[in-house]
Amino acid sequence: MLTSGLAADPASTSTLPETISIQRDQFGVPHIYAASDAGAYYAAGYVAAQDRLYQMLMTRVIMEGRAAEFFYENAGDKSLVRRDQITRLHGWKRHAIRTANALAQHEPELHSLLQAYCDGVNLYMSDPANRANHPMLIQFPLPSHIPWTVRDCLLAWYSIARQFAPIDGNEGREREDWDRLRTTINPLTGVRYTRAEILEGAWGSCFTFAQPINQSVPWLAT
């Protein structure tokens, strides 16, 4: 049984023979209590969907090469079509499908944990109210009725990897930027920028994405 301090249905049951509890602290950070790894992954998927459902769905359509299908009318940017063509040429979706099948065959324990995470995501998405009342889904509809799968977890990881290691030919320039920042004095501290400060600067734009979503902590994307 899954219980939560935020919008979970106490009567909802998973396939797991245990009670899983999710409690949000005063900062909106979820704390998960479970008797097994699978239970923890299940709850992690649920709270991820609570906090980042739109980002997850958007990542899925982008990595499938379908961005223009959903965003072209609003953006009016023909480069989306070209981006989708490149994404499909690289074959991220095909690779994710092959990897998910390989995990199921050769790493069944890991695959089952990822499936537990997916089950948690799908529990949240199975409630029509969670989709119907989502502000971003109202403004920019995405297919939220399609279940989240292990393949989609892999696509999300590929997306993050692409941000850390771009494939658009800018690796050399970004490496120069990294080296330059490592030797630059932070005017606020009087010492060189730390690795955490450099990463925070690089990812600052990502933190603002969840501002309309996470009402508990407007500045935090959990």
If you had to describe this structure to a student in words, what would you say it looks like?
With 222 residues, the chain is mainly alpha-helical. The chain has a single domain (2-164), classed as Penicillin Amidohydrolase, domain 1 (Orthogonal Bundle). The protein contains ten helices and three strands. Strand 2 (20-24) and strand 3 form a beta hairpin. Helix 1 (37-63) packs across helix 8 (150-164), helix 2 (67-75) packs antiparallel against helix 3 (79-90) and helix 4 crosses helix 5. The chain is globular and about 55 Å long. Mean pLDDT is 75; it is low at 4-14 and 202-222.
Summarize this structure as a short list of keywords or feature phrases:
mainly alpha; Penicillin Amidohydrolase, domain 1; 3-stranded mixed β-sheet; 3 strands; 59% helix; disordered C terminus
Report the structural category: mainly alpha
- The CATH topology corresponds to Penicillin Amidohydrolase, domain 1
Number of helices: 10
Number of strands: 3
Oligomer: single chain
Low-confidence stretches: 4-14, 202-222
Relative strand content:
5-15%
CATH architecture: Orthogonal Bundle
Biggest sheet strand order reads 1-2-3
Mean pLDDT reading: 75
Shape: globular
Count of spatially separate domains: 1
Q: Give the class-level CATH name.
A: Mainly Alpha
